[in-house]
């Protein structure tokens, strides 16, 4: 896979799947920019792979606009947007007790964040004359989720991807949506810990077991697919792609 000379923005690239994608992109010659709310993890992780780090809260329109202003000051154009930022809140909370505030936070970050990043990436991608947008949804979009808000938000992210693909094809912009399964990241492992607690078991032990086992995939596995989708080799891929 050749990503030489491609300017690639990985939103949510401080940790987990996003960081794995940013690392693979950088290793294959991409000029990588990592954007994330988590500066503590994001700055050193970006420096280690030679990526520029930009702080952003994807749920805040002014913050997203500022991030793209920062990028526009450094880069002439953007070739690829990989959007992995997301949160899972409200796992195992019954529907009747699910707080509206939690629902809104999840929707703001997962859905509105994906929309805002795609929206404000547009001028810089259009300057390249062609481009790629990759949204990270989840198998929870069409399957089972521990959180009513998370599952619903990922269904919306997938639909957003289909809509964007249709609207942006005339601009030579390919939009793909990736649906990962269970992957060993902080997000997934904390849900496993919570589930164990609800069953009166030790969260720490359940997390350690899941992290050591093979049932969950590694972030690098999805990272490689995201990087490949960013490349010209994936030009003929349309729509969704499901991973383990
Ligand atoms: N781990 C899994 O099993 C799994 C499965 C399916 C889908 N996903 C999706 O993959 C993506 C990456 O998740 P992960 O598992 O690597 O978890 P993660 O928590 O390691 O990564 C999420 C990243 O998003 C960032 N983020 C959260 N809110 C933000 C905000 N408001 N503004 C900017 N950045 C923000 C976090 O700081 C973090 O770096 C998410 O969209 C998640 O829903 C994960």
Structure keywords:
single chain, 244 residues, alpha/beta, Rossmann fold, 2 domains, seven-stranded parallel β-sheet, 8 helices, 7 strands, binds nicotinamide-adenine-dinucleotide
What would your notes on this structure say?
The protein has 244 residues and is an alpha/beta fold. The protein has two domains: 7-182 and 218-242, NAD(P)-binding Rossmann-like Domain (Rossmann fold); 184-217, no CATH class. 50% of the residues lie in helices and 15% in strands. It contains eight helices and seven strands, in the order E-H-E-H-E-H-E-H-E-H-E-H-H-H-E. It has helices at 16-27, 39-48, 61-74, 100-128, 148-168, 186-198, 203-212, 219-230, and strands at residues 7-11, 31-36, 52-55, 80-83, 131-136, 173-179, 239-242. Strands 3-2-1-4-5-6-7 form a seven-stranded parallel β-sheet, sandwiched between helices. It is globular and about 55 Å long. The model has no long low-confidence stretch (mean pLDDT 97). The structure holds nicotinamide-adenine-dinucleotide. Residues 12, 14-18, 36-38, 56-59, 84-87, 109, 113, 136, 138, 180, 182-183, 185-188 line the site of nicotinamide-adenine-dinucleotide.
């Amino acid at each position: 896979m050749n990503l030489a000379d491609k300017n690639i923005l990985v939103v949510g690239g401080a940790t987990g799947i996003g960081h794995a994608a940013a690392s693979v992109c950088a290793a294959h010659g991409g000029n990588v920019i990592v954007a994330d709310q988590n500066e503590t993890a994001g700055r050193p992780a970006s420096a280690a792979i030679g990526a520029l780090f930009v702080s952003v809260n994807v749920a805040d329109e002014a913050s997203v606009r500022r991030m793209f202003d920062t990028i526009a000051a450094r880069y002439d154009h953007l070739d690829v947007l990989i959007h992995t930022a997301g949160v899972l809140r409200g796992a195992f909370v019954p529907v009747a007790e699910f707080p509206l505030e939690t629902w809104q936070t999840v929707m703001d970050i997962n859905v509105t964040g994906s929309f805002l990043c795609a929206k404000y990436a547009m001028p810089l991608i259009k300057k390249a004359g062609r481009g790629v947008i990759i949204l990270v949804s989840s198998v929870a979009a069409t399957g089972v989720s521990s959180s009513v808000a998370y599952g619903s938000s990922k269904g919306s992210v997938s639909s957003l991807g289909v809509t964007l693909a249709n609207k942006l094809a005339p601009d030579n912009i390919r939009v793909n949506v990736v649906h990962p399964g269970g992957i060993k990241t902080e997000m997934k492992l904390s849900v496993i810990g919570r589930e164990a607690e609800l069953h009166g078991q030790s969260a720490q032990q359940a997390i350690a077991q899941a992290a050591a086992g093979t049932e969950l995939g590694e972030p690098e596995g999805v990272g490689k697919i995201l990087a490949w989708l960013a490349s010209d080799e994936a030009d003929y891929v349309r729509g969704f792609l499901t991973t383990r």
